[in-house]
Amino acid sequence: MKPSLPSLLAHSQARFNDVLHTFLTEQKSVDARLYAAMHYAMSNGGKRVRPALAWGACIAVGGDWPQADSAALAVECIHGYSLVHDDLPCMDDDDLRRGKPTCHKQFDESTALLAGDALQALAFFALSKSALSADICNRQVSHLSNAAFAMVGGQCLDLAAEGQHLQRPQLEQIHRNKTGALIRAAASMGALAGNASSQQLQALDDFADALGLAFQVHDDVLDITSDTQTLGKTAGADIALAKATFPALLGLDGAKAYAQQLTEQALSALVPLGDSAQPLHELAAFLLSRDH
To answer: Hey, which end of the chain has fewer CB within 10 Å, N or C?
Structure first.
């Protein structure tokens, strides 16, 4: 039986669809095909974990949902662009994303590439339109730009590691950048939107750092244990591309145990935030039990 969707994630998915629709409707692209590709890439399902983290972190420090709208939108635009580019033939060369044709398959390679470029630009435009103070916006831009840069570096390391046998520190370096950096940024940007203290920011960064790595370890496990229909993308792709993965390094049971350990570490970091962090607690537990 599938685990029930946490209320934070369910609410985030519904809220994000409204925020995204309003934002994209306001954008006037000179090319209709480009606009269609951007909309396709961003509306093609997805768990909306990063927006949920932004909103959840904001709530955990005493903020309200609307305060983190721009952070949630911006971080998901960066995530969306990264997926479009990751799927391209020059990268992971995938035909399926969330059970549907990838952007370059639905349109074409050049349109997909440009759609990703446009989404990256719009992420920062979204932050610039925020009603938050200039200081908070500037700090959010710093977190997001640094995370996007780290994500690209992680992708480079990941591609270079294909067919290589890595030690755990090397593998963790890849995924703390490729996957974890944006997850940490989501939590930090949401916390900033809620006017978090330095202690609250540190607690949420520790939480997101452990959670981001747990998320990737569990993804590696699912690539082996799940199927294409459930995943919504090609199962076994890591093996086909000779990717360096945690199951390959630790064994399947070892990888599962490590994901559990990291999740417990993430949850421990939330203790100083008290009951207000309960939605993030439920989200972390769900991510460890998800099947896609």
So the answer is: N
Q: Residue 91 has what pLDDT? A: 87
pTM of the model: 0.93
Collect all residues with Cβ–Cβ distance below 8 Å to 167 and sequence separation of at least 6: 249
Which residue type does 50 have? R
Q: How many CB atoms lie within 10 A of CB 277?
A: 25
Query: How many angstroms separate the Cα of 292 from the Cα of each of 161, 188, 201, 264?
Result: 24, 25, 29, 20
Q: What single-letter DSSP state applies at residue 108? A: -
**274: left (phi > 0), else alpha (psi -120 to 50), else beta?**
left
How far CA 121 is from CA of 67, 78, 141, 144, 238, in Å, comes to: 21, 9, 12, 12, 30
* Superfamily, domain 7-289: Farnesyl Diphosphate Synthase (1.10.600.10)
